[in-house]
Design goal:
A hairpin with a 2-residue loop joins strand 1 and strand 2 (103-104). The strands form 3 sheets. Strands 1-2 form a two-stranded antiparallel sheet. A two-stranded antiparallel sheet has the order 3-4. A two-stranded antiparallel sheet has the order 5-6. It has helices at 11-19, 41-50, 54-59, 63-73, 79-83, 87-97, 106-118, 121-127, 133-141, 156-159, 181-194, 196-208, 211-228, 234-237, 276-281, 289-303, 310-332, 336-345, 348-365, 374-383, 408-419; strands at 99-100, 103-104, 144-148, 171-175, 390-391, 402-403. The two termini are 40 Å apart. With 425 residues, it is mainly α. It contains 21 helices and 6 strands.
């Protein structure tokens, strides 16, 4: 976010915007205001593919932005875009896709193994050095059983057993799932023909390594890679929802940040240029872009699925923006200059926790309230959802839906409305 409160636009986004004129093909959806990058994923992808230096330009995209475009367009329609990915972009996608919280996903593993094959043998060979051995062994230990081996006294019974295949008459394999055999075999064949050392390590690892240990190590290496991009481990990310109460909040005297040097992220959505937070940020003397991005990344990790869709990311951006605005408005009593001074000495994560805590206290005050009319029932429905949402019918546009909380006034309006229906619990 710029020092003047304007929306941040990265160099890659600006290059994309300039390239888009007259070059879009495929679905020509109307760009949605507030979409990170300023255009639909289709338009961004087509502009990038139309660039004479497409590979170079695609490689310059932050991993998160490449992932968002790919998932929103869909792999079926983004094959050419996927083929241009850098090994780092592919590795980021594998790190995001192959895990469900702390658990390795066998189904997703096979799905993305197929996608690597779709990118071509050259892409597979380019990717292999960027994949830690534990992850590779884990992926294939889920797919095949391995027998035989170098130096093993392989019995005649084992040698003539009903194995599905052998690439070298030394190791014998059986596919666990016949429907997946072709893709799994094709991938191992690429490894066998191009990197015998890796092939031997893969076979021995599948034979001898414990799956639980492989999964633990692969997760640890994954966490390290994501941390380098500013994405914390899930356990750490969830701490931003450890709410703080305004009654016992003690402001920090100063803050000392220790952020990963290469943190990059997507800009906050448009439509908030005149918000309290943006007006305060415009007066902050030292930039807080990296700290803000780190907070958004934590919220994305805590959500678990938001990074895979434009709508999910927008919801997270707006939630972060709203809770920060709530906390700053409360602490500064609506004084923008005081809010800017608070940002300079207070950790944004603590402000987020305070804003979230204030919304949760609103919910707690009215948790036992029961009402009969539709509108108030919808207010309570939104307030009791996870996370709490604001009922949009209270806005000037009167839409029957929900949105993130934006500021202290949202809390006040709901509090007053529900108080009229009875004493808070």
């Amino acid at each position: 976010m710029g020092r003047d409160g304007s929306k941040v636009v990265s160099l890659e986004d600006e290059r994309t915007r300039r390239a888009m004129a007259g070059k879009a093909t495929g679905p020509d959806a109307v760009a949605t205001p507030g979409v990170p990058g300023g255009a639909t994923a289709w338009k961004q992808m087509n502009a990038l593919l139309a660039d004479p230096r497409a590979r170079e330009v695609v490689h310059a995209l932050p991993e998160q932005q490449f992932y968002r475009i790919l998932t929103e367009v869909g792999m079926t329609d983004a094959v050419e875009f996927w083929e241009l990915a850098s090994p780092q972009q592919r590795m980021f996608i594998l790190d995001m896709e192959l895990w469900d919280s702390w658990n390795f996903s066998e189904e997703k593993s096979h799905q993305w193994l197929n996608h690597l094959l779709e990118a071509g043998e050259e892409a597979v060979l380019e990717q292999l050095p960027h994949m830690d051995a534990e992850l590779l062994i884990l992926m294939f230990k889920k797919e095949i059983i391995v027998g035989g081996g170098i130096g093993d006294l392989v019995s005649d019974e084992e040698r003539v057993a009903d194995w599905d295949h052998s690439f070298d008459n030394v190791y014998f394999i059986t596919f666990r799932n016949a429907e997946r055999a072709r893709a799994v075999g094709s991938f191992i064949d690429i490894v066998f023909r191009n990197d015998r050392e890796l092939y031997l390590g893969l076979m021995e690892g599948i034979k001898g390594e414990l799956e639980s240990e492989l999964e633990e190590l692969a997760y640890r290496f994954r966490s390290g890679r994501l941390a380098d991009l500013g994405f914390p481990e899930l356990e750490d990310a969830l701490t931003i929802y450890a709410r703080l109460s305004p009654d016992n909040f003690i402001p920090s005297a100063e803050k000392r940040l220790d952020l990963a040097p290469g943190i990059t992220g997507l800009p906050m959505p448009a439509g908030y240029e005149e918000s309290f937070l943006n007006r305060a940020l415009a007066l902050v003397e030292s930039p807080v872009d990296q700290e803000l991005t780190a907070l958004v990344n934590s919220a994305l990790v805590a959500d678990g699925t938001a990074l895979r869709s434009r709508e999910g990311m927008e919801a997270i951006f707006r939630r972060v923006h709203g809770y920060l605005s709530i906390a700053l408005e409360y602490l500064s009593e609506g004084d923008v200059e005081r809010a800017a001074a608070i940002i300079g000495r207070e950790y944004l994560s603590r402000l987020f926790r305070l804003g979230f805590g204030m919304v949760m206290e609103l919910r707690k005050r009215h948790e036992s309230l029961a009402v009969g009319d539709y509108a108030t029932g919808r207010v309570l429905e939104g307030l009791r959802s996870t996370p709490p949402r604001f009922y949009r019918a209270l806005d000037p546009d009167g839409i029957d839906g929900f949105r993130e909380f934006r500021g202290v006034d949202d809390i006040r309006r709901i509090d007053e409305l529900l108080a009229r229906h009875g004493d808070p619990a």
